[in-house]
Amino acid sequence: MSEAFEIEPDLVAALRSCRHLAVLTGAGISAESGIPTFREALTGVWSEYDPEELATPEGFARNPDRVWGWYRSRRTRIAEAEPNPGHRALAELERRVPSMTLVTQNIDGLHLRAGHRDVIELHGNIGRVRCSVEGTVVERFEDGDRAPGCPTCGAPLRPDVIWFGELLPRAALERAWAAALSADLFLSIGTSNIVEPAASLPWAAAQSGARVVVINTTSEGQRRGPGIRHLVGPAGEVLPALVRAAWPRGSTPEAPGWRQA
Questions:
Q1: Each residue of 16-59: pLDDT tens digit?
Q2: Residue 80: is it exposed, middle or buried by C-beta count within 10 angstroms (0-12/13-18/19+)?
Q3: Mind listing the pLDDT tens digit for each residue in 182-231?
Q4: How far is Cα 114 from Cα 112, in angstroms, rounded to an integer?
Q5: pLDDT per residue over 132-151, tens digit each?
Q6: Cα–Cα distance between 207 and 14 in angstroms, integer?
Q7: 87, 116, 123, 230: which one is catalytic?
Q8: Is 106 in contact with 29 (CB distance < 8 Å)?
Q9: Is the bond leading into 253 cis (omega within 30 degrees of zero)?
């Protein structure tokens, strides 16, 4: 596909001179790997259920086996997905800039599979499970039709994700805010920037003096202001193009796994 966005020289210079890059990603980058949003996945036998029955502590308490089955079906679909060029371009950026903090609202783990060393997962990771009572992450469990019991206390295991009505993990949120306030360049990718508190991260970065670049398939509904730029297009096109513009082929050794178009 042709590039409908323009990467201007000052943005290239900002990326090359960046000392601390902060990045926030949302559902848009995962959609490019074929992963539907929560509500888009409510199809087939799951279409009759209200999201509150499948993604709240109360729904889990009423029927842990049903909730477990829903997340088991989602884990299966996500396991079949692969990181896309946008994920891989971000992993390449992590290798190129002096310091980078990646914050994601996604639970699919694709950033880690793309090669990132450290990801702040604000909403958890669907590939992990934890005890519904003790909160302890359990590494080995039987992924059957029924919610398995915690090996320590016997309580049902639940996916290690944030459900409706639950607070984001404090430590992760504090790290995300610290990154936004200390960054000199902030990329907001594939998110509507509506759901708080993550939605405020780009604007907090802008108010602290960072240059903010919003990468999304539309700029409609996104905030505008001094220091905020919009690149409209799929992350899988915009991010590789950004890396190519900042580091043309041959300017530095290519990192393993990186493929330039």
A1: 999 999 999 999 999 999 998 777 776 765 666 777 788 999 99
A2: exposed
A3: 999 999 999 987 778 888 999 999 999 999 999 998 877 666 766 788 99
A4: 5
A5: 999 999 998 888 889 999 99
A6: 17
A7: 123
A8: yes
A9: no
Cβ atoms within 10 Å of 232's Cβ, excluding its own: 16
Choice between 261 and 227, residue whose per-residue pLDDT is larger: 227
**Phi/psi at 77 (nearest 5 deg)?**
-65, -40
The first and second tokens of residue 30, run together, are 């995962």
Return the structure tokens found at 198: 């993550």
Token code pair at residue 35:
């992963």
Q: Residue 29 in contact with residue 138, Cβ under 8 Å?
A: no
- Reported residue count of the chain is 261
Q: Rounded distance, CA 172 to CA 174, Å?
A: 5
Three-state secondary structure of the chain: CCCCCCCCHHHHHHHHHCCEEEEEECHHHHHCCCCCCCCCCCCHHHCCCCHHHHCCHHHHHHCHHHHHHHHHHHHHHHHHCCCCHHHHHHHHHHHHCCEEEEEECCCCCHHHHHCCCCEEECCEEEEEEEECCCCCEECCCCCCCCCCECCCCCCEEEEEECCCCCCCCHHHHHHHHHHHHHCCEEEEECCCCCCCCHHHHHHHHHHCCCEEEEEECCCCCCCCCCCEEEEECCHHHHHHHHHHHHCCCCCCCCCCCCCCC
Q: Is 123 a catalytic residue?
A: yes
From first CA to last CA, the distance across the chain in angstroms is: 11
Residue type, 25: T
